[in-house]
Amino acid sequence: MYAAPHPPQPLAYAPTPYSYTPSSALTATINLDEEVKLSTVPHDRDLYESLAEIYSIIITLDALEKAYLRDSVRESEYTETCDRLLRQYRSNLTDERVGRAFRGLEEFKREWGLDVPKATERLRIGLPATVETAPANSHRPLSTASSQPSATPLAAQHLVTASENFITLFDAIRMTMLSKDTLHPILVEIIQAVNKVTDRDFENKGKIVQWLITLNQMRAAEELSAEQARELQFDLNAAYDGFKGVLKVWLGSTTMDGARLTARDLGIDAEDDDVLDVLDLPQLYTKPPARTLLSTLDDLSSDPPSWETTPRSGTPRSQSGTSTPFKRRPKVRSEGLPHYLTKIISSPLAWIDDDGEKEQVWEAASQRLSERSGRTGRGAMSRILYIPLTPTSDVPNTPLSDDTALHSAIVEDDDNADPSILPIHLHEPALTADNLGLKTWASSYLLAKRLVSLQKALPCLPPDAKILELGAGTGLVGMAAAAILQRQVYLTDLAAIVPNLERNVRANALAVAGLGGGEMRTGTLDWSDPGSVTFSLTTIAGPGDAESEMQILLQTFPLLLAADPLYSPDHPALLTTAIAYHLSRSAEARVVVEIPLREGFASEREDFTARMLAMGLEVRDEGEEVGYDDWGGADDRDGEAEGGVGGEVRCWWSVWGWAAKL
Asked: Quick check: is 424 in a domain?
């Protein structure tokens, strides 16, 4: 009997007896634990991994936004997580291949069927919601903190930061630095700083956010057009005027009451500044381009401490007076940072084709590592120290009052330098030998600042009087004396120290001369042979002549200066010998000395004091003060501080004169 065939069965998605017949030979070759790769080409695998990471970031961000709106996550956790997701999103798109495959957020969403309105809006703005608008619970506005507004040093810091960021962005626009990767970070910092000051809406504040959205949608290297730059500058001026208007109203009714009002009372947490982790930095496994690595390493640069306690405002300026855009560096936790830098140095950077760019990355990473290896580990460096020209307090190390800091936060005209402050630029070579005179010590800075308060206490110097500094080192004290006392100063040290000393004096000569300061000469003076002195044949401000130099060798000085001169058992005898030789026998003659109170050198200080008294000198004035150094505490000149951070240094300053019986 004929049997009709079975009707054809539709193929199912899952294997069925109608669609699949198991093969024992094929089944034996399948490994269920084996990873199925989309591509066997390394470049394509990296591309797919980056796109998959972007996909997961978008999904996670959308869930985070919804959780924040439902109040299911704390604001601090939301801000940190959202900020990290946004940075990871931007970091992935810095790769040109990924950017081309991604095409755009809307295209990416359509391709993969994503319905993520919350994440879309957050990616469009590019900032966490808590940063876009100041959160009411975490940052209470200064202007409404109480019925009688008050301010603290922290409030002054936020005001200064906000004003500096506005000025920095103005400078960048004027210098046609119009790329997104230049303007976007500054604009973000403006919004963050403004929100830390006040959450009140001021005129044209919304335009800042709109420009942030515009920049956020541009590619990293894309630049604003000339017309867009003019519009940005116009809107920024209007927003800055509105910001200053709010602050002027507030400052007009502000009373400084830091003793009763704390940062918590104002709703401002001193620890709220974002601190990055090493894992937040570009990781080598992602193969970041050379430009990204160099930018990161530049952000990690560690400037030498200036030990300056006086609050300052405005944008840093070059010696020519041209305003220099200042990029505020992010804070990065130190844990793991040396290992991160070492990995860059040891990596072949095979994905970077340009050998020159590789060398730049290795060199920058090596410099960042040396900066964290103590003062002797880092190479040559420069620092700026600020010397007061008018007495603002009895102790020069005391900062300006909080009221002064707060009311100077709004910079009306940044083109005018503060005439009461002298910035001294110092170069310090690498300490490759035991030449400690190549470093600027805390006692030198303290003595340089104390000169303005000692000016009235010292006897009046004749107009043609000359001052001698013993052991001048980098020249800080001598240059300050020339500017403040307005007399000719001879700065002396050993032959190995003098070339750098002369370099520093020449670098600051115009600044000192512009204040009506005296001429400066550098020379070699060995304390073991104080009569043998060799000075340069030219003054820093103009030509000299050999005859005047011979005359200087035959005369003494009415004022001698010395800072940190004792760090060997032989030094008390050598120093007092030089003082006895060069100090005039006039009753008006003085010796001003500043010595750190190091425990290991107590016997040297006692020996110095005994020899000065035996010579017929007596202490006319003295005191103690505390400064800061990047070498270590006052108890050890031989041990430097970890990472070059340093610590407090207590110093003894003294003014000596001939005893009355002489």
From this structure: yes
pLDDT tens digits for range 315-362: 333 333 333 344 455 677 777 888 888 899 999 999 999 999 999 999
CA distance to 174, 532, 533, 582, 615, per residue, from 552 (Å): 51, 11, 9, 11, 23
Which residues fall within 8 angstroms of residue 230, CB to CB, at 6 or more apart? none
Does residue 362 sit in the same domain as residue 492? Answer: no
- Asked if residue 571 lies in contact with residue 480, where contact means CB atoms within 8 angstroms, the answer is no
CA distance 315 to 1: 103
**8 Å CB contact between 444 and 532:** no
* In a shared domain, residues 510 and 638: yes
Read off the DSSP letter of residue 396.
T
| % of the chain residues with pLDDT over 70 | 68
524 found inside a domain: yes
Query: What is the DSSP annotation of 500-538?
Result: HHHHHHHHHHHHHHHTTPPPEEEEEE-TTSTT-EEE-SB
- Name the amino acid, one letter, at 428: E
Q: CA-to-CA distance for 223 and 207, rounded, in angstroms?
A: 19
CATH of the domain at 619: 3.40.50.150
Kindly report, residue by residue over 471-499, the tens digit of the pLDDT.
888 999 999 999 999 999 999 998 888 99
Helix (H, G, I), strand (E, B) or coil at 215: helix
**Nearest-CA neighbor of 165 among 201, 207, 194, 128?**
194
Would you state the structure tokens that stand for residue 261, as one six-digit string? 């009002």
What residue has token string 């206490």?
A: 457
- Find, among 525, 623, 615, 624, the residue nearest to 572 by Cα: 615
Label residue 350 exposed, middle or buried (CB < 10 Å: 0-12, 13-18, 19+): exposed
Look up the pTM and report it: 0.52
